[in-house]
Amino acid sequence: MYRGRFAPSPTGPLHAGSLVAALASWLDARAHGGVWLLRIEDVDTPRCVPGAERLILQQLAACGLVADEPPWRQSERGPAYADALQQLVAAGRAYPCACTRRDIDKALAARGVVHERFAERVYPGTCRGGLHGRPARAWRLRADGRVRWVDRRLGEAVQDVGAEVGDFVLKRADGLWAYQLAVVVDDAAQGITDVVRGEDLADNTPRQILLQHALGLPRPRYLHTPLVLGDDGHKLSKQNGAQALDLADPLAALRAAGAVLGLPPLAAEDVHDWLAAAVPAWAGIIAAFDERLRKRP
């Protein structure tokens, strides 16, 4: 059975880009006759804003998007992440790291690599051979090999994770669990079959596939949705000052999100009528995605 999810971080209210991802994941679940879940990704506790979770739930409800099961919270899932890390350590796939960000930048600079804004900081593997007396700060996954996967919208993709990302963090120097480990463990525990999320997260997919393989977990299908861009041309986000979603007219907000997803104008008098019309419209869009994938060389 199809099981999808929307996983917001409670670092502030939803914005227009958040609603696009939430709507797409809800529509995809409904178009497949499946279940839609909500996961609060509050593992990065210092960035979480008091009251944000409650506000996010209210915003979703105003748009008619209500989860089929009680929400999960990553802040309550620490023991599961610890078990996964120990499994990786026992298998020789994870190792402790003593490097600071400055250490990494210095090691990269020594190779003639200058870190650019928004670019991936490729870990040079300094601690792969041991800490050499330095105290451990974080834990990393040995990221070897190329990963090939197919996105339902974007098509086939390949990434050499070791060369393009390097060994990535599983547990941070501040003791918090890293996003990559938490999302993989939780997707498996919730039985998620399909991940529908923003296109900005597509480059996380190969890392998560590596972790799924290392932990013996199933791989969901992936669909990455178009992004809403800010005035500066970058993804609309809380970090670049995205305004809270204006829900004075929830129907108008849904229409705008639907337009980003490629939905046609839909006749509706209220939110529930619009969502009812949007489900078959989305089914037609994803059918076209599937047909294109079937025809690929």
UniProtKB/TrEMBL annotation:
Q: Where does this chain carry the motif 'HIGH' region?
A: 8-18
- Gene Ontology BP annotations: glutamyl-tRNA aminoacylation; tRNA modification
| InterPro entries assigned | Glu-Q_tRNA(Asp)_Synthase, Glu/Gln-tRNA-synth, Glu/Gln-tRNA-synth_Ib_cat-dom, GluQ/Sye, Rossmann-like_a/b/a_fold
Residues binding ATP are: 238
Q: Which SUPFAM superfamilies match?
A: Nucleotidylyl transferase
Extract the PANTHER family matched here. Answer: GLUTAMATE--TRNA LIGASE, GLUTAMYL-Q TRNA(ASP) SYNTHETASE
Q: What family does the database annotate?
A: Belongs to the class-I aminoacyl-tRNA synthetase family. GluQ subfamily.
Q: What is this protein called?
A: Glutamyl-Q tRNA(Asp) synthetase
Lineage of the species this protein comes from: Bacteria, Pseudomonadati, Pseudomonadota, Betaproteobacteria, Burkholderiales
Q: Which gene encodes it?
A: gluQ
